[in-house]
């Protein structure tokens, strides 16, 4: 499936910053059980590649599993070898996009300006992450929609929660990256599932 197929199943991207390998499978099962099927383990989490490996092995084709906060091509290779199929970055680095696409991964790099967006698309990005989204708000996303190709999935990330989701949706968001609104370090699987239900209800 391409990234839009996954986003049509559920437009939420779960950012599991701080998750540990010994808890990641239960958290992943809780999210998938509520319908959240795109899971990102940021690389500044404890043993992130091991968490990706466990999630990918446990969930298989039921979820699009990968990592975020990439900075180096060696990290792309390590995550791909662990079974990760998604690259997310906080910044605009076309080289990382090309490295991900060379390994058959979905590339969802971060951007803040039209210049960054077009450079990432030229490198092969599948979707674009507007970050930090709260810096510009829905009005910024609406303006970007006017100049970017209409079929490019745009996902605001940063400060996205149940209260702001309707405004982002009205501005043209294709999906939403949710961190603490879905998961905080130490959250029990039942807590994560309840947060997922609240966000889905807001949609």
From TrEMBL:
Coiled-coil residue spans: none
Family matches, as SUPFAM superfamilies: Aldolase
Associated pathway: Carbohydrate acid metabolism
InterPro entries in UniProt: Aldlse_KDPG_KHG, Aldolase_TIM, KDPG/KHG_AS_2
Superkingdom field: Bacteria
Alphabetical UniProt keywords: Carbohydrate metabolism, Lyase
PROSITE patterns in alphabetical order: ALDOLASE_KDPG_KHG_2 (PS00160)
Record-linked PANTHER family: 2-DEHYDRO-3-DEOXY-6-PHOSPHOGALACTONATE ALDOLASE-RELATED, 2-KETO-3-DEOXY-6-PHOSPHOGLUCONATE ALDOLASE
Complexes and interactors: Homotrimer.
Family under the similarity heading: Belongs to the KHG/KDPG aldolase family.
Protein's name according to its UniProt entry: 2-dehydro-3-deoxy-6-phosphogalactonate aldolase
Lineage of the species this protein comes from: Bacteria, Pseudomonadati, Pseudomonadota, Alphaproteobacteria, Hyphomicrobiales
This protein's encoding gene: dgoA
């Amino acid at each position: 499936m391409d990234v839009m197929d996954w986003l049509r199943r559920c437009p939420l991207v779960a950012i599991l910053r701080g998750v540990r390998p010994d808890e990641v499978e239960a958290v992943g099962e809780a999210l998938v059980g509520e319908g959240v099927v795109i899971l990102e383990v940021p690389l500044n989490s404890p043993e992130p590649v091991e968490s990706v490996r466990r999630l990918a092995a446990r969930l298989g084709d039921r979820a699009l599993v990968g990592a975020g906060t990439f900075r180096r091509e060696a990290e792309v290779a390590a995550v791909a070898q662990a079974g990760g199929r998604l690259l997310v970055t906080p910044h605009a680095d076309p080289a990382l996009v090309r490295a991900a696409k060379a390994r058959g991964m979905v590339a969802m790099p971060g951007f803040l300006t039209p210049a960054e967006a077009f450079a990432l698309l030229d490198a092969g990005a599948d979707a674009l992450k507007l970050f930090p989204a709260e810096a510009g708000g829905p009005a910024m996303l609406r303006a970007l929609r006017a100049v970017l190709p209409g079929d490019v999935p745009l996902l605001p990330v940063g400060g996205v929660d149940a209260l702001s989701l309707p405004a982002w949706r009205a501005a043209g968001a294709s999906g939403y990256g949710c961190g603490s609104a879905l998961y905080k370090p130490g959250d029990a699987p039942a807590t994560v599932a309840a947060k997922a239900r609240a966000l889905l209800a807001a949609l």
